[in-house]
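Field log, afternoon session.

UNIT: design team B
ACTIVITY: writing a sequence onto a fixed backbone
BACKBONE:
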Protein backbone atom coordinates (compact mmCIF):
# COMPACT_ATOMS: atom_id res chain seq x y z
CA UNK A 1 0.00 0.00 0.00
CA UNK A 2 1.33 3.44 -0.89
CA UNK A 3 1.48 5.84 1.98
CA UNK A 4 -0.14 9.10 0.88
CA UNK A 5 -1.15 10.60 4.17
CA UNK A 6 0.47 12.72 6.79
CA UNK A 7 -0.97 13.18 10.23
CA UNK A 8 -0.09 16.05 12.46
CA UNK A 9 -1.17 17.61 15.70
CA UNK A 10 -2.52 21.15 15.47
CA UNK A 11 -2.96 23.79 18.17
CA UNK A 12 -3.04 21.21 20.90
CA UNK A 13 -2.20 23.07 24.07
CA UNK A 14 -4.05 25.91 25.67
CA UNK A 15 -6.04 26.68 28.80
CA UNK A 16 -9.80 27.20 28.83
CA UNK A 17 -10.79 30.14 30.95
CA UNK A 18 -14.55 29.53 31.08
CA UNK A 19 -17.05 26.95 29.91
CA UNK A 20 -18.36 29.37 27.29
CA UNK A 21 -15.02 29.30 25.50
CA UNK A 22 -14.89 25.68 24.53
CA UNK A 23 -16.05 22.66 22.45
CA UNK A 24 -17.24 18.76 22.27
CA UNK A 25 -17.29 14.94 23.38
CA UNK A 26 -15.76 11.49 22.74
CA UNK A 27 -16.16 7.74 23.70
CA UNK A 28 -14.34 4.41 24.18
CA UNK A 29 -11.78 3.33 21.59
CA UNK A 30 -12.45 0.66 18.99
CA UNK A 31 -11.23 -2.78 19.96
CA UNK A 32 -8.98 -2.97 16.91
CA UNK A 33 -8.15 -0.78 13.96
CA UNK A 34 -9.39 -1.95 10.55
CA UNK A 35 -6.85 -3.35 8.16
CA UNK A 36 -5.62 -0.77 5.66
CA UNK A 37 -7.09 -1.24 2.20
CA UNK A 38 -5.23 -1.15 -1.07
CA UNK A 39 -5.14 2.39 -2.40
CA UNK A 40 -6.16 3.85 0.97
CA UNK A 41 -4.33 6.23 3.27
CA UNK A 42 -1.70 5.64 5.86
CA UNK A 43 -1.28 7.90 8.85
CA UNK A 44 1.99 8.44 10.64
CA UNK A 45 2.13 8.71 14.42
CA UNK A 46 2.44 12.02 16.20
CA UNK A 47 5.56 12.83 18.18
CA UNK A 48 4.29 13.85 21.64
CA UNK A 49 6.02 16.54 23.64
CA UNK A 50 6.92 15.10 27.01
CA UNK A 51 6.17 16.80 30.27
CA UNK A 52 3.28 19.01 29.14
CA UNK A 53 -0.40 18.84 29.97
CA UNK A 54 -3.62 19.96 28.35
CA UNK A 55 -5.40 22.33 30.65
CA UNK A 56 -9.12 22.06 31.37
CA UNK A 57 -11.58 24.38 33.05
CA UNK A 58 -10.89 22.61 36.35
CA UNK A 59 -9.13 19.40 35.36
CA UNK A 60 -6.08 18.39 33.35
CA UNK A 61 -5.10 15.40 31.24
CA UNK A 62 -1.43 14.76 30.41
CA UNK A 63 -0.74 15.47 26.76
CA UNK A 64 0.92 12.11 26.22
CA UNK A 65 -2.25 10.33 27.38
CA UNK A 66 -4.37 12.38 24.97
CA UNK A 67 -1.98 11.61 22.13
CA UNK A 68 -2.04 7.90 22.95
CA UNK A 69 -5.85 7.72 23.00
CA UNK A 70 -6.28 9.57 19.72
CA UNK A 71 -3.45 7.89 17.86
CA UNK A 72 -5.36 4.64 18.29
CA UNK A 73 -8.13 6.24 16.23
CA UNK A 74 -5.94 7.21 13.28
CA UNK A 75 -6.60 4.04 11.23
CA UNK A 76 -10.34 4.68 11.67
CA UNK A 77 -9.95 8.31 10.56
CA UNK A 78 -7.98 6.98 7.60
CA UNK A 79 -10.84 4.66 6.68
CA UNK A 80 -13.28 7.60 6.72
CA UNK A 81 -11.18 9.46 4.15
CA UNK A 82 -10.74 6.33 2.04
CA UNK A 83 -14.51 5.87 1.86
CA UNK A 84 -15.08 9.55 1.09
CA UNK A 85 -12.59 9.44 -1.78
CA UNK A 86 -15.02 7.21 -3.69
CA UNK A 87 -17.12 10.36 -4.17
CA UNK A 88 -14.30 12.93 -4.25
CA UNK A 89 -11.06 11.31 -5.48
CA UNK A 90 -8.98 14.36 -4.52
CA UNK A 91 -10.36 14.37 -0.96
CA UNK A 92 -7.83 15.76 1.51
CA UNK A 93 -7.60 18.31 4.27
CA UNK A 94 -7.15 19.09 7.93
CA UNK A 95 -9.56 18.72 10.86
CA UNK A 96 -9.24 20.18 14.34
CA UNK A 97 -11.54 18.91 17.09
CA UNK A 98 -12.52 20.61 20.31
CA UNK A 99 -13.23 18.11 23.10
CA UNK A 100 -15.06 18.35 26.41
CA UNK A 101 -14.14 15.33 28.55
CA UNK A 102 -16.16 14.57 31.68
CA UNK A 103 -14.94 13.36 35.07
CA UNK A 104 -14.95 9.72 33.96
CA UNK A 105 -12.80 10.37 30.87
CA UNK A 106 -15.72 10.00 28.42
CA UNK A 107 -16.28 12.62 25.74
CA UNK A 108 -19.33 14.62 26.72
CA UNK A 109 -19.21 16.59 23.48
CA UNK A 110 -16.83 17.29 20.61
CA UNK A 111 -17.10 19.55 17.56
CA UNK A 112 -14.92 20.05 14.50
CA UNK A 113 -13.69 23.56 15.29
CA UNK A 114 -11.76 23.75 12.02
CA UNK A 115 -12.04 21.72 8.82
CA UNK A 116 -11.21 22.24 5.16
CA UNK A 117 -12.07 18.68 4.16
CA UNK A 118 -15.15 19.69 2.15
CA UNK A 119 -17.05 16.42 2.54
CA UNK A 120 -19.75 16.16 5.21
CA UNK A 121 -19.89 12.36 5.21
CA UNK A 122 -16.17 12.14 5.94
CA UNK A 123 -16.37 14.77 8.66
CA UNK A 124 -19.27 12.96 10.36
CA UNK A 125 -17.43 9.64 10.11
CA UNK A 126 -14.30 11.08 11.73
CA UNK A 127 -16.39 12.87 14.36
CA UNK A 128 -18.21 9.66 15.30
CA UNK A 129 -14.91 7.93 16.06
CA UNK A 130 -13.65 10.96 17.98
CA UNK A 131 -16.77 10.88 20.14
CA UNK A 132 -16.10 7.28 21.10
CA UNK A 133 -12.58 7.98 22.36
CA UNK A 134 -11.96 7.11 26.01
CA UNK A 135 -9.51 9.32 27.89
CA UNK A 136 -8.10 9.00 31.40
CA UNK A 137 -10.13 10.78 34.05
CA UNK A 138 -9.06 14.44 34.33
CA UNK A 139 -7.03 15.33 37.38
CA UNK A 140 -7.95 18.32 39.49
CA UNK A 141 -11.62 17.78 40.19
CA UNK A 142 -13.24 19.02 36.97
CA UNK A 143 -13.78 18.25 33.28
CA UNK A 144 -11.07 18.98 30.71
CA UNK A 145 -11.31 20.77 27.37
CA UNK A 146 -8.69 20.76 24.63
CA UNK A 147 -8.17 20.81 20.88
CA UNK A 148 -6.44 18.22 18.71
CA UNK A 149 -6.20 17.74 14.97
CA UNK A 150 -4.68 15.89 12.06
CA UNK A 151 -4.22 16.34 8.32
CA UNK A 152 -4.46 13.99 5.36
CA UNK A 153 -2.64 14.76 2.14
CA UNK A 154 -4.00 14.00 -1.29
CA UNK A 155 -3.14 10.58 -2.76
CA UNK A 156 -0.36 10.60 -5.38
CA UNK A 157 -1.50 10.42 -8.96
CA UNK A 158 -4.82 12.17 -8.29
CA UNK A 159 -5.33 15.49 -10.05
CA UNK A 160 -5.21 18.29 -7.48
CA UNK A 161 -8.15 20.70 -7.57
CA UNK A 162 -7.58 24.39 -8.15
CA UNK A 163 -8.01 26.40 -4.94
CA UNK A 164 -10.14 29.54 -5.03
CA UNK A 165 -10.17 32.33 -2.47
CA UNK A 166 -13.46 33.42 -0.89
CA UNK A 167 -13.51 36.58 -3.02
CA UNK A 168 -14.03 34.36 -6.08
CA UNK A 169 -17.48 33.33 -4.78
CA UNK A 170 -18.41 36.53 -2.91
CA UNK A 171 -21.23 37.36 -5.33
CA UNK A 172 -22.81 33.94 -4.84
CA UNK A 173 -22.65 34.29 -1.06
CA UNK A 174 -24.30 37.71 -1.21
CA UNK A 175 -27.00 36.43 -3.53
CA UNK A 176 -27.96 33.49 -1.29
CA UNK A 177 -27.22 34.77 2.20
CA UNK A 178 -30.91 35.48 2.95
CA UNK A 179 -31.69 31.77 2.42
CA UNK A 180 -29.62 30.93 5.47
CA UNK A 181 -31.96 32.75 7.86
CA UNK A 182 -34.06 29.58 8.10
CA UNK A 183 -31.05 27.80 9.62
CA UNK A 184 -31.02 30.22 12.56
CA UNK A 185 -27.32 30.90 12.86
CA UNK A 186 -26.85 33.17 15.86
CA UNK A 187 -24.35 35.51 14.19
CA UNK A 188 -22.28 35.87 11.00
CA UNK A 189 -18.91 34.18 11.01
CA UNK A 190 -19.88 31.09 13.01
CA UNK A 191 -19.38 28.53 10.24
CA UNK A 192 -16.47 27.85 7.89
CA UNK A 193 -17.66 25.98 4.80
CA UNK A 194 -15.50 24.18 2.23
CA UNK A 195 -16.87 22.98 -1.09
CA UNK A 196 -15.63 21.15 -4.14
CA UNK A 197 -17.16 22.74 -7.26
CA UNK A 198 -17.49 20.61 -10.37
CA UNK A 199 -17.07 21.81 -13.96
CA UNK A 200 -20.23 23.74 -14.76
CA UNK A 201 -20.43 25.31 -11.29
CA UNK A 202 -22.49 22.75 -9.35
CA UNK A 203 -21.40 21.62 -5.88
CA UNK A 204 -19.72 18.23 -5.89
CA UNK A 205 -19.50 18.03 -2.09
CA UNK A 206 -19.45 20.32 0.93
CA UNK A 207 -18.41 20.22 4.57
CA UNK A 208 -18.17 22.66 7.45
CA UNK A 209 -16.67 23.43 10.84
CA UNK A 210 -18.42 25.38 13.60
CA UNK A 211 -16.89 27.95 15.91
CA UNK A 212 -19.56 27.37 18.56
CA UNK A 213 -21.51 24.36 19.77
CA UNK A 214 -24.78 26.09 18.82
CA UNK A 215 -23.56 26.66 15.26
CA UNK A 216 -22.57 22.99 15.01
CA UNK A 217 -26.27 22.11 15.30
CA UNK A 218 -26.99 24.08 12.11
CA UNK A 219 -24.31 22.57 9.85
CA UNK A 220 -26.60 20.17 8.00
CA UNK A 221 -29.19 22.88 7.38
CA UNK A 222 -26.54 25.24 6.00
CA UNK A 223 -24.92 22.60 3.81
CA UNK A 224 -28.27 21.56 2.35
CA UNK A 225 -28.66 25.13 1.11
CA UNK A 226 -25.07 25.44 -0.13
CA UNK A 227 -25.32 22.24 -2.17
CA UNK A 228 -28.17 23.78 -4.19
CA UNK A 229 -26.21 26.91 -5.14
CA UNK A 230 -24.71 27.51 -8.56
CA UNK A 231 -21.13 28.77 -8.45
CA UNK A 232 -18.98 30.24 -11.24
CA UNK A 233 -17.95 27.64 -13.80
CA UNK A 234 -14.37 26.58 -13.01
CA UNK A 235 -13.89 25.21 -16.52
CA UNK A 236 -12.50 21.76 -17.13
CA UNK A 237 -11.09 21.26 -13.63
CA UNK A 238 -12.85 21.03 -10.28
CA UNK A 239 -12.01 23.65 -7.69
CA UNK A 240 -11.97 23.75 -3.90
CA UNK A 241 -13.04 26.86 -2.06
CA UNK A 242 -13.53 27.75 1.62
CA UNK A 243 -15.69 30.60 2.88
CA UNK A 244 -17.16 31.88 6.13
CA UNK A 245 -20.89 32.23 6.78
Amino acid sequence: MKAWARARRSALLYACVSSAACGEPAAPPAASAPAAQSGGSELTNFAPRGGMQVEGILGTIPQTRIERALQEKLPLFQRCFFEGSAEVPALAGAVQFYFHVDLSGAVEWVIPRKSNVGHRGTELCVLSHAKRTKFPAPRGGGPAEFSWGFELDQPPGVHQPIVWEQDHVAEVLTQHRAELAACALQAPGELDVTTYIAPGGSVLSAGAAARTEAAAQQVDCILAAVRSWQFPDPGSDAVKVSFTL
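LOG NOTE: The longest strand covers residues 93-101.
NEXT ACTIVITY: expression trials, pending approval
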